[in-house]
Amino acid sequence: QFLKSELRAAIGNGALILHFQPQLAADGTAVAFEALVRWNHPTRGMIGPVDFIPLAEEDDTIVKMSEWILRGACREAASWENPLRVAVNLSPLHFRSGNLPGTVQAILEETGLAPDRLELEITEGVMVQDFEQAMSMLRKLRDVGVRIALDDFGTGYSSLSYLQAFPLSTLKIDRSFTENLGRVEQSAAIIRSVVGLGHALGLEVAAEGVESQEQLDFLIAEGCDLVQGYFTGRPADIDAFRRLTGRDI
Ligand code: G
Ligand code: G
Ligand code: MN
Ligand code: NA
């Protein structure tokens, strides 16, 4: 449906934009913002990543795009008055490509962002595909000093031994579990168990997809360290948050 040449051109010409969604601590203060890419297409309007990332992943367009996203997110975060973290989603293809730790380090140096303010979000798939390669990559990234979050946790195939072995910082409970609260009896027990598991392993636990006060109350009561979702803050242009709060973030 889209031409790859259009997408490649969009990377450099301002048509790709980053939205940011806040992650709040239990007391309601913002701790981090997750960068979420969008394509502001000249004729088709705003296009979400599920509609163009697969196209980018057909060749090395994804690497160029991911580096642009990473640089943009780091540059943005480096400009904030508050030293909040920024989280960036990593395509599994980018994760396996070339010199990711070197690229990350170069972008941190270029933008002046402290490494511990960057969290890279990976999905369970990258750990399962090639254990040794993933382990080596994660160790190098941790040597650079960045944080690693396991995104969409609970939907993939990661075994508990992976959780023990990999140098992770954060578990992000997939939004399907939050969504099922109050609807599927087991979801409360699953969330409670994952919070306990994450904390026992020394990880921060974040819940995604928070869409109501009831869900928020439950997640906070269960000890989730961070909450993220439409109820606590929709993804938006970062300037929208500045206008909303009337101050720099
Ligand atoms: O932002 P939205 O909810 O439409 O995102 C849909 C999917 O696209 C999610 O799986 C999200 O992780 C992914 N995504 C959003 N932004 C990025 C990005 O910058 N890079 C990659 N690789 N995936 C992204
Ligand atoms: O896979 P990942 O967790 O990175 O995906 C994030 C996606 O989830 C983004 O596209 C974002 O727009 C979307 N999202 C964020 N908060 C909510 C929410 O409360 N409900 C739903 N349905 N989607 C959300
Ligand atoms: Mn994510
Ligand atoms: Na997720």
TrEMBL record:
The lineage of its organism: Bacteria, Pseudomonadati, Pseudomonadota, Alphaproteobacteria, Hyphomicrobiales. It comes from Nitratireductor arenosus. Residues 1-249 form the EAL domain. It comes from the Bacteria. This is EAL domain-containing protein. Transmembrane segments: none annotated.
